[in-house]
Amino acid sequence: MINLSKSGMLVLTFLLAFAGIGYGQSNIPTKEEQISAAVSPAPEKMQQQAKVLGYTKNGELVKLREGNNQLVCLADNPQQSNFHVACYHKDLEPFMKRGRELKAQGMSRKKVDSLRREAIKSGEISMPRKPMALYSLTGSANSFNYTTGQVMNASPLYVVYVPFETEASTGLAGKPTTKGAPWIMEPGTPWAHIMVITGRDIGKKSGSGEK
Prior knowledge:
The protein is α+β, with helices and mostly antiparallel strands.
């Protein structure tokens, strides 16, 4: 069995990042810098063609770049104290977008999940029954050097959404077991997903990266 402290903290950070819990940072990188950071979790060959969403000086989430492949990449939220960027399959965008909209209204995660479940059930939100990838990097505020475009000691998380699948249907455990082994989180839900936590940070270790 592995020590769950690090994996548990990474999962919590991942969830909080998508919950939009803010801390009010005001130093927002340029459009080009945000794009560079946003695509960094994705496989290199997919980075140049990914659609990118990022932030204006007023903190509004906008489209920074059109995309020509399967990925949508989300820049680091300047209202968060940590660094977190993610790229996910474009078919997840209606689900992600609704989540962002509801969380911006101050709703709890439980309420957001309830409303999104209803929207999926009614067909208002499409959640295709197929595997859909998500790649993310999470770390301290200086985990990305916006001057050099380098990742500076961030923790990767790899997720494969498998809507409505369960432990029985996938043969996966419902919690982490061996270090690096995949497991299924929130099985049976429209947002059931396979988690893969490597336990290894990537990038150079440095405290010099700044936004």
